[in-house]
Amino acid sequence: MEIEKKFLVSDIPDLSQAVKVFEIEQGYLCSEPTVRIRRKNDDYILTYKNHIAVDDEALNVSDEREMPLTKDSFFHLKQKCDGICIKKTRYCIPYQNYMIELDIFHDRYEGLILAEVEFDSVEESKLFEKPSWFLEDVSGKVDYTNSYLAQK
Hints:
Helix content is 13%, strand content 51%. It has 3 helices and 9 strands, in the order βββββαβββαβα. It has an 8-stranded antiparallel β-barrel with strand order 1-5-4-3-2-6-7-8. The longest helix is centred in the middle third of the chain and has 8 residues, at 71-78. It is globular.
């Protein structure tokens, strides 16, 4: 199970702290349940996500399954995606006991910067103290889901 919060980011933090950097391109074959294809550097992945309702609407909880794809399969499925493919650069930045995934979007969404943090439990997510460069918590807002952005 994946439990995460998503935040708008005001200013790009010091990216020299990033322990990993990925160039990501992703598209959606279905939005509910979510069926996503993703190129992450030279890895190709098919993801199935089933969103789980929780009492806290400001939290994203889902059952997520991933399967590897070949490069050819990715590009074949890419032609079948609904909407556009999203391109972004992801920086993995350690913060306290967490790993922040900072996504800087490109092309149509140039200027959009989102950060995600995963948690082991709903209770842990409620105790999280965000860094100063995090703005609004947009976890429960569909407008900031990648599948929604791909449809706009």
